[in-house]
Amino acid sequence: MRASVGDKLVQHGRVVGQHDHVSEVVEVLGPEGNPPYRVRFPDGHEAVMSPGPDCQVKHKEKEKQ
């Protein structure tokens, strides 16, 4: 998994009825775009995440198309 600043990190819900959590990558802490990432959630909360298999990176270039 590789991400850049400005990409979206989507953590999919694991059980029925649980919504996806979307955050924005504000800092890449690993080498060459690898985790961990500092992310910001819509409410302003920031966290450091090492995404697991339930996460997906939506690159900012692909969202503009």
From TrEMBL:
Residues 1-57 form the DUF1918 domain. This is DUF1918 domain-containing protein. Transmembrane segments: none annotated. Pfam families: DUF1918 (PF08940). InterPro entries: DUF1918 (IPR015035). Residues 43-65 are annotated as: Disordered. Residues 56-65 have a biased composition (Basic and acidic residues).
